[in-house]
Amino acid sequence: MKKLFGTDGIRAVAGQSPLDPATVYAVGVALAHHLGTAPRVLLGQDTRESGDWIAAALTDGLTAGGASVESAGVITTPAVAFLAAAHGFSAGVVISASHNPWQDNGIKLFGPDGYKLPDATELAIEEEIFRQLAVSTEMRRGGVPPAVNEADRAEYVRFLLAAVPGLSLDGKRIVIDCANGAASAVAPQLFAGLGGEVVITHASPDGRNINEACGALHPAVVAAEVVKCGAAMGITFDGDADRALFADEHGRVVNGDAVLLLAARDLQARGLLAKDTVVATTMSNMGLEAALKRSGIAMLRAAVGDKYVLEQMLATGAALGGEQSGHIIFSGRSTTGDGLLTALLLLDILHRAGRSLAELTADLKTFPQVIVNVKVKEKRPLESIPSVAEAIAEAEVALADSGRVVIRYSGTEALARVMIEAESEPLMRRHADAIADAIRTEIGI
Predict the structure, then answer these.
(1) What residues does the Alpha-D-phosphohexomutase alpha/beta/alpha domain cover (predicted)?
(2) Do the domains spanning 153-250 and 369-443 agree at the CATH topology level?
């Protein structure tokens, strides 16, 4: 069982284990050793103030392990995945904690094909990290990261625009929230010249304001700005821009489930939806499943995490998959969730349809859904805690024919997530609160 890697790399408070300087250095050495003789590694980061020293320590470790390192500087996670594959790098590494607050940071790893590393590979690297730490506990804060290759961003923008030839905003006003994160370095250039008025917000990172009251973690912010500006649509990214959420012209938030529905119908109409199948996750709403079924499209559910969505897509041959949170994967176009690509492809669907986002999502009727996050001090198996198991069982019996109960630990934070859907909102909230209270009592902080 992995101890350092979660569902999306290593993530923690910057400076504390496992993101202390010694462990970051060991990660670099271990990765270099795993990659073989004279590997080349591409490094990117988001806008957190801890990014530079982590990049320096990681670079020191990679170099000590025999690797050469090139930096793309502040750039999105999917850009690193794309560039690593396009230029024959042995691996791509992103220093980012995605949607987490600025105090956190993380390390995400991609293989030479641009795909996230499988669990077995991460486990093998973990074992080498622990061996390195056993040999030396010297604190290594690192020197200076490699010089930034400014051309990387421009190449990534060209790749994105090539995916949507002829795209036009049709003179419409679009609001874009960059979350004071990695999208700040790419989105202004990407959306310029598309034939509309683009209002860029939250694109002034200071190292500590990433995701702060903005971005995909707070989609109501861009939704309110759409109404205020009289815009046709809003787009909002998370800190490393591997996911995107939207707001329609009425200021209603449009999540990843709705994007999956629109993209699936568009691909199906063009004969490009392989096996008429979409891969979603356990968190996707039952309403999406029903809407897809009305269009003759089957929906499979994977574990939460875009790497697990992708695994099921590759196993089944599905052309489209994603998460309610906004990670969307288009087979053949991307190897990971890419918020900027998703935004362009959704804009292209609207342009070709000649209809608004509200019009195209009007028939998506979602079940009431509540998600309660409980901070926990440990991640004991929930079924081993009698009071929690009893509360879950009661909810499952009560909602057997009219809802869903999904309880899981976050793979990136010290949280237990209680998600319940039901036709009856009072019943849904009562059981969600009961389960959350049981978890809080037993292992809550």
Answers:
(1) 3-131, 155-251, 255-364
(2) no
Torsion, Cα 76 82 85 88, to 10 degrees, reads -70
Q: Where are the domains of the chain?
A: 5-150, 153-250, 254-335, 369-443
Q: For residues 344 and 337, give the distance between their C-alpha atoms in angstroms, rounded to a whole number.
A: 13
Q: What is the pLDDT of residues 25-84, one digit of tens each?
A: 999 999 999 999 999 999 999 999 999 999 999 999 999 999 999 999 999 999 999 999
Binding residues: 98, 238, 240, 242
For residue 158, what are the contacts with CB-CB under 8 A and spacing of at least 6?
A: none
Catalytic hit among 50, 71, 98, 284: 98
Name the CATH architecture for the domain at 369-443.
2-Layer Sandwich (3.30)
pTM above 0.85, yes or no: yes
Residue ranges for the binding site for Mg(2+)?
98, 238, 240, 242
> What number of other Cβ atoms are within 10 A of residue 130's Cβ?
14
Alpha-carbon distances, residue 239 vs 22, 43, 46, 360, 383 (angstroms): 25, 16, 7, 28, 33
Question: Which of 326, 304, 164, 167 minimizes the C-alpha distance to 240?
Answer: 326
Q: How far is CA 207 from CA 48, 70, 148, 391, 439, in A?
A: 4, 22, 18, 42, 34
Catalytic annotation on 387?
A: no
Is residue 297 a contact partner of residue 267, using CB atoms and an 8 Å limit?
A: no
Residue type, 34: H
- CA dist., res. 300 & res. 287, Å (int): 14
Give me the CATH topology for the region 153-250. Answer: Alpha-D-Glucose-1,6-Bisphosphate; Chain A, domain 3 (3.40.120)
